[in-house]
Amino acid sequence: MTQYLAMGAAAPHWRLGFGQQLQHHGWDTDEFLLFNDLAGDTHLVDQDALDVLHLLREAPDDVAGLAARLGLGPEQAPVLDALLETLHRLSLVEYGA
Amino acid sequence: MAAAPKSLILITTTGSGGRGNESCLIVLYTLLLATARQFIKDTNVATPDPDQQPPRLPSTPSPLAAGQPTSPARRRFGRAGAAAAAGGVLATVKSSPGMACTICWTPSADQSMLIGKSHHAENNPCNGVPPSSWIASTSWPNNINRDTFKFQDAFTMRGTNTDKTMLALMQVGSDAVCAKNDYACKANRYDSSLSNDAWMMKYLCANFLNMTSKKMPFLTMEILNGIWTGWCTNSAYTPRGGAKAWGIADLKRYLSGTV
C-alpha cells in the first residue's frame, strides 16, 4: 500500500467510501434511507448528506471545493466539516490521497 | 463535533452470505421507514421546519435579508435541529457486518424501486460478467488485444505470473456460469482447486475488463490496483479511511460478487 500511494500521490481529499453504492430511497420529504454497503447498516439521512455523497462520487474533493460545488457560504463550512466527520465515522466517505 | 447518530435496532440476519438481493432491501425499507420515523418522533428529535427561514450565526448577516440569491444547499446547511447536530445523519439501524444486502445494484432493482426525490437513481448499473464471458468474447474493450494483453499491462505491482496474458490467467480453474441470484452457484466460484493468488489474478482480470467496458462504473483502476498491491504486500486490502482490512474471504466475496 505504501508503494502504491508513493506513486504519483495527490493531495488528500475526501472521497466516497470504497464499495459504497449509495442505494437509497426517498419520499416526499428531505429524508432518505441510505444503505451502507461496507457496514451493512441503514441510515436515515437528510438531503445535505445525500448531496455531499453524490458529489464525492462524481469527484473527490477537499472541504473548500465541496463547499463551492454546493454553493455554500463560509459560515456554513463548520457544518460541512461536521457532516464529513460523521460520514467518515460511518465509513461512507474516506479521506486520503 | 457532531453528535453520533442514534442506533435504533440491532438486526441480525442469517443467510448464504455474500451478495444479497432486492427483496432483502425492500423488506428493510418497509421496516425502517415506520420504525425510524416513530423513533425520531418519540425522542423528540427536532426536525427542521421547511417553511422556517434558516437561522444564522449572530455575527453573520442573513443573505436572505440582504436580498442575495442563495442555492438550495446554502439555505439548508446551517439550520438548527437534528440535521445539523447529527451532521446530516439522523438515525442508524445497525446490522450484522455479514448481511451485505447487495454489492451491486442490478438494473431490475433500479427499475422496481421508487426513488422519491433522488436525482441519481439512474446511476447504478451492475452489469459485470464473469471470466468465462471474457474468454468467449472476441471483442475486448478499448481495442485491447486479448491474445497479447498482459496482467502487468494494467496492474502496477509485478510478481509471479504478472507477465502472463489476462486471457491465460482467466482460463485457469473452473468457471461456473451462474444466474444473477444463484448464490449457491456463485459460492463455487471460490474454486478450491486454485491457489489464492491464481484466483485473485483471475477475478481481477475480469473486474478490470468489466470496469474498462463501463459495465461497473463504481470501480476504478485505482481501487483494483489498490486491491492487488494490498494483496501482494499484506495478503489483505485496507480501504483508505480506517475501515477494517479485507482478507481473502472478503476479497473473494467482493470480486466474484460484482460479476
Strand content of chain A: 15-25%
Q: Which structural class should the secondary elements of chain A be placed in?
A: alpha+beta
| Morphology call of chain B | globular
Poorly predicted sequence stretches spanning 5 or more consecutive residues of chain B: 1-28, 43-69, 80-86, 96-125
Strand order of the largest sheet of chain B: 1-2
Beta-strand percent range of chain B: 5-15%
Textual characterization of the structure:
The complex is a heterodimer of chains A (97) and B (259). With 97 residues, chain A is an alpha+beta fold. Helices cover 39% and strands 22% of the residues of chain A. Residues 1-9 of chain A have low confidence and may be disordered. Chain B is mainly alpha-helical and 259 residues long. Chain B has a two-stranded parallel sheet. In chain B, helix 8 (196-212) packs parallel to helix 10 (248-257). Chain B is globular. The relative contact order of chain B is 0.13. At the A-B interface, helix 1, strand 2, strand 3, strand 4 and helix 2 of A face helix 1, helix 2, strand 2 and helix 9 of B.
How would you sum up this structure in a few lines?
The complex is a heterodimer of chains A (97) and B (259). By secondary structure, chain A is an alpha+beta fold. Chain A has helices at residues 2-6, 47-58, 63-70, 77-89, and strands spanning 13-16, 24-26, 31-35, 42-46, 93-96.
Topology:
The complex is a heterodimer of chains A (97) and B (259).
Chain A: H1 2-6, E1 13-16, E2 24-26, E3 31-35, E4 42-46, H2 47-58, H3 63-70, H4 77-89, E5 93-96
Antiparallel strand pairs in A: 1-5, 2-3, 3-4
Chain B: E1 6-11, H1 22-42, H2 72-76, H3 82-85, E2 89-95, H4 107-112, H5 131-136, H6 166-170, H7 183-187, H8 196-212, H9 221-234, H10 248-257
Parallel strand pairs in B: 1-2
